[in-house]
Amino acid sequence: MRANPEPSDGDLVIAARAGDGAALGLLLARHRPRLLASALRLLGYRADAEDAVQETFLAALRHLDAVREPAAVGAWLHTVLRRACLQHRRRPDALRTDALVDVIDVVDASAGPDERLERADLRDWIWGALQRIPEPLRVAAMLRYFGSYDSYDELAAILGVPVGTVRSRLSEVRRKLSDALLAGRLDDGSRARWRARERCWLDAFDDIVRRGASDPFVSLLDPELLVAWSSGATARGRHHLAAEIESDIAAGVRLVAERALTTDGVTVVEGRFVNPPEDPTHCPPGIALVLFGGGGDDRASRVHLHLAPRAPRPDD
């Protein structure tokens, strides 16, 4: 009998859920050859097969707590892989939803993805990994996997880049993020800092609604803020944004923030407009802001602003 028997899949799943990055790495490495072989049979093209396996890993990292029987994680991984491969086989001009999002249909539908993340504290793990990848990739991942405006067209509009650039960035995210996740969970200091920053932005928006005061929000912006609208227009100076807010307040428009997502140097805020009854089309239904800078006591130095034809999903 061996003194140190190799841990079972079930043992590795339980350890990974408890935050053991080494256990998670061993689990994924153990199943990678079979997953890649299956993907190659289904897709026939190695680059697509590699992408499908990376998407499967990313889905596993986010939804590992949804596996009802830890010992059967191999079958669960292959189910996710088949879904990822089906997405890759769609027509190239179709918008593609990758396995990280689509896996929601595979696992327990009674709980939302955020609920499952918080249940096992995996959300913080993912946010810690996001901080380890380059900023352009991080922003794309934050919007795609945690925001409301998550189609390739919407991401392209928000970020002011072509759809092809969005696709390539998300493909790179899937390659880099699965490795970054194995580096461990978010540390307590970063967690506290990011949560405080999210609260700061949400409170600033709340002041606009409750008190009709834009000053708390504007104070979070650098005076020389670069504003880039998804229409392609740009302007220098936070007074441009302040003027828009004051105009909306005067018109009786309310702006309700639904969510704020923060890492060091990048914040995403999504909100919905509530127009007055006498002017129901004054503002579009939704708004998304991607703010760069603003880490620690610094003010945001650049913002991408997208006026959306639909309101964001309410934060759960």
Automatic annotation (TrEMBL):
<keyword id="KW-0238">DNA-binding</keyword>
<feature type="domain" description="RNA polymerase sigma factor 70 region 4 type 2">
    <location>
        <begin position="124"/>
        <end position="177"/>
    </location>
</feature>
<keyword id="KW-0731">Sigma factor</keyword>
<dbReference type="InterPro" id="IPR039425">
    <property type="entry name" value="RNA_pol_sigma-70-like"/>
</dbReference>
<dbReference type="InterPro" id="IPR013249">
    <property type="entry name" value="RNA_pol_sigma70_r4_t2"/>
</dbReference>
<dbReference type="Pfam" id="PF04542">
    <property type="entry name" value="Sigma70_r2"/>
</dbReference>
<comment type="similarity">
    <text>Belongs to the sigma-70 factor family. ECF subfamily.</text>
</comment>
<dbReference type="Pfam" id="PF08281">
    <property type="entry name" value="Sigma70_r4_2"/>
</dbReference>
<dbReference type="GO" id="GO:0016987">
    <property type="term" value="F:sigma factor activity"/>
</dbReference>
<feature type="domain" description="RNA polymerase sigma-70 region 2">
    <location>
        <begin position="27"/>
        <end position="91"/>
    </location>
</feature>
<keyword id="KW-0805">Transcription regulation</keyword>
<protein>
    <submittedName>
        <fullName>RNA polymerase sigma factor, sigma-70 family</fullName>
    </submittedName>
</protein>
<dbReference type="GO" id="GO:0003677">
    <property type="term" value="F:DNA binding"/>
</dbReference>
<dbReference type="InterPro" id="IPR014284">
    <property type="entry name" value="RNA_pol_sigma-70_dom"/>
</dbReference>
<dbReference type="InterPro" id="IPR036388">
    <property type="entry name" value="WH-like_DNA-bd_sf"/>
</dbReference>
<dbReference type="InterPro" id="IPR013324">
    <property type="entry name" value="RNA_pol_sigma_r3/r4-like"/>
</dbReference>
<dbReference type="InterPro" id="IPR007627">
    <property type="entry name" value="RNA_pol_sigma70_r2"/>
</dbReference>
<dbReference type="InterPro" id="IPR013325">
    <property type="entry name" value="RNA_pol_sigma_r2"/>
</dbReference>
<dbReference type="GO" id="GO:0006352">
    <property type="term" value="P:DNA-templated transcription initiation"/>
</dbReference>
<keyword id="KW-0804">Transcription</keyword>
